[in-house]
TrEMBL record:
Signal sequence region: 1-24
InterPro entries assigned to the protein according to its UniProt record, in alphabetical order: Bact_solute-bd_prot1, SBP
Highest taxon in the source lineage: Bacteria
Keyword Signal annotated: yes
Protein name from the UniProt record: ABC transporter substrate-binding protein
Alphabetical list of Gene3D superfamilies matching this protein: Periplasmic binding protein-like II
This protein's record includes keyword ATP-binding: no
Residue ranges of the region described as Disordered: 28-47
Keyword terms of this UniProt record: Signal, Transport
Length: 459
């Protein structure tokens, strides 16, 4: 997933225009008269359109969305916006691109930005706000929705210097290992519940002649991000949430001994030629294998396990039985001991506006409210959609993995940590971290050199 799975995407912000929608309950300016509601909303009298009728009749208007989410994952998004069109009359012009990371920057600098972009990195959002001054603040309708439907942490991820810019779009839980329940049953293998058990199982599988792991970190301009997820997940397990927070905030150096230990543990799997890379080649092949393809050899019996987020459910071919006893499913990436419990790594995307037009504010209000998440859930029957929105009915979430993920995200007691690279400054989280982890894999660069180089790049 980005496709929705390109779980990283660079984003650039839009023209900063102060003010907001001139409507009851919304503050702002209307210097050009384009932000006033006019006419009777097509959704008037419909309960599901209640929050959108304040925007009036937007027929003839359109909102341009630019994102890294491409086919086949784009169709559920397009379908989820049908209610918005029914309620407002406005259409959504959806454009997904595998070149999103590079092209969005070009488009913004050339004065041709989309109305909205989906940004998966709070750290990059912060960099854009502070370095460009062009990101548009979210209107009050959106801010109020996030207060109502999300926990305070999620609003904080979209806030920079005390100003709220970007409401959540989707979420994901990353601490999963995909496998084939059918294969495990046939081979007599048991799902591991501790890290040591997982390594013992890996040895057993390797001894059988099969590579226990397959992996891929290729993702176009964002190549390398799946390797950063590996390190973050292991940091939570080997060093604990508190040290993880210190690392993400740069309260300890990027090359702190705790990080060296964690990356070496990742290397025990990803650089172990007995373990990888099932179906593709040696360990270096991980760097050139697209992450969207990386888990597929499980279906051919060429590897047994693939660590990837909940959204990977959308990457299995049509007809794959994704279930607890089926062709593919996932188990929780085990903890390394009892000291730090069972921490969960996750991430998400955020909606950032490039204009304060009334139709753009209406769409952001729709996405951030309680209706869109259920429309998106119903529009994603094959699974691969998760949100931390409290109004999401789990009955509208397709797969058991997604349901489990939603329960985790909605549980206030969960030890949840947001993807570290997404919180770091863009130059690191969407730059040197990806690049150096790719060199660590593809060029067999040493752990120390890799972390030293990233530390040296910190702004």
């Amino acid at each position: 997933m980005r496709s929705r799975n390109t779980r990283r995407g660079m984003a650039v912000a839009a023209v900063l225009v102060s003010g907001g929608l001139v409507l009851a309950g919304c503050g702002g300016s209307d210097s050009e008269g384009s932000n006033k509601a006019s006419g009777t909303s097509p959704g008037e009298g419909k309960a599901e359109c209640e929050q959108l009728t304040q925007f009036g009749d937007l027929s003839g208007k359109s909102v341009k969305i630019y994102t890294s989410i491409v086919a086949p994952e784009d169709q559920p998004y397009k379908d989820s916006f049908k209610l918005f069109t029914d309620c407002t009359g406005a259409k959504v012009d959806y454009e997904g691109s595998k070149e999103f990371e590079a092209q969005l920057v070009v488009r913004v600098k050339s004065g041709n930005p989309p109305d909205i972009a989906f940004i998966p990195q709070p750290g990059l959002l912060k960099t854009l706000v502070q370095d460009t001054g062009k990101v548009v603040e979210a209107p009050k309708t959106v801010s109020d929705n996030v207060d109502e439907f999300y926990g305070p942490d999620w609003k904080a991820y979209g806030t920079v210097d005390g100003k709220f810019y970007a409401p959540p779009l989707t979420a994901n839980v990353k601490s999963f290992v995909w496998y084939s329940p059918k294969m495990f049953a046939e081979k007599g293998w048991k799902v591991p519940t501790t890290w040591d058990e997982m390594l013992q199982l890996s040895d057993t599988i390797a001894a059988s002649g099969m590579k226990p792991w397959c992996a891929g970190i290729g993702s176009g301009d964002a190549t390398g991000w799946p390797a950063t997820d590996w390190l973050e997940d292991v940091m939570l397990r080997s060093a604990g949430p508190d040290v993880y927070d210190q690392w993400v905030n740069h309260d300890i150096a990027f090359n702190d001994p705790a990080v060296v230990t964690a990356l070496d543990k990742v290397g025990d799997i990803l650089k172990n030629e007995d373990y990888v890379n099932g179906g593709f080649g040696d360990s270096k092949s991980i760097a050139s294998t697209e992450f969207t393809d990386a888990g597929l050899p499980i279906l051919d019996g060429k590897c047994a396990m693939h660590r990837q987020a909940s959204f990977y459910a959308a990457n299995w071919p049509e007809g794959t039985d994704v279930s607890e006893n089926g062709d593919a499913y996932a188990f929780y990436l085990p903890p390394m001991g009892d000291e730090f419990g069972s921490p969960v790594l996750g991430g998400g995307e955020f909606v950032t506006a490039f204009t304060d037009s009334i139709e753009t504010q209406a769409l952001m209000t729709y996405i951030s409210g309680g209706e869109w998440v259920n429309e998106k859930g119903k529009a994603t029957p094959n699974g691969g959609f998760v949100s931390a929105n409290k109004n999401l009915d789990i009955a509208n979430v397709a797969s058991p993995i997604d349901k489990t993920s939603v329960e985790i995200l909605q549980n206030p007691d969960a030890v949840f940590r947001f993807d570290g690279s997404d919180l770091m400054p863009g130059a690191v989280g969407a730059g040197s971290f990806w690049k150096e982890m790719t060199a660590w894999i593809g060029e067999n660069q040493s752990t120390q050199d890799t972390l030293d180089n990233i530390e040296a790049s910190w702004p």
